[in-house]
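Internal tracking record. Fields below are filled automatically when a chain is submitted to the structure queue. Please do not edit lines marked as system-generated. If the sequence contains nonstandard residues, flag them in the REMARKS field before resubmitting.
Queue: standard
Priority: normal
Entity type: single polypeptide chain
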Amino acid sequence: MSDFDKPLERTGRSRMHLRRKKDSDAFGRFAESTARFMGSPKFILYMTIFVVTWVAANVVLVSLAGRSWDPYPFILLNLAFSTQASYSAPLILLAQNRQDDRERVIAEQDRQRAERNLADTEYLTREIAGLRMSMGDVATRDFVRSELRVALEEFDRDREGRLAERDQRIAELQAELDELKAERDEP
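SYSTEM-GENERATED OUTPUT FOLLOWS
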């Protein structure tokens, strides 16, 4: 029996699969942090310092030694920018896609919550109508409409309150994030 006829052992492969599965989100987090950094004033400042240093060094070398590693049209610098752009664009798009996915999940959860609230409201309206009928008090169309209007107003107030709480929590988290960034940036 040759080695080709034996089944493959799966122990090493499953470990690699589990390891990859744990870190499947790591590249997405890396993309988000890269996109976040590239959109910061610190990045613009670093790039400006880098470009000014590059150009100044090449101009000074040409004037002193008569040659430099990247003379005037600065083709090597242009190549570096092109390479940076070719890597940063997909990372930024990946970060945007991840944000879109998060927002889509939040919107779906809000929609499901609204559907549950509407179903609860309809159920309560039917229960109220049933109680009135069992008590001999028939619910009129105007009464049902007024009850629905009141329930809808309460639902809108509750929804606005939840949205305000969510916005407040987002603001708190953003403030904490800004504080952490400030602490990290302090020397």
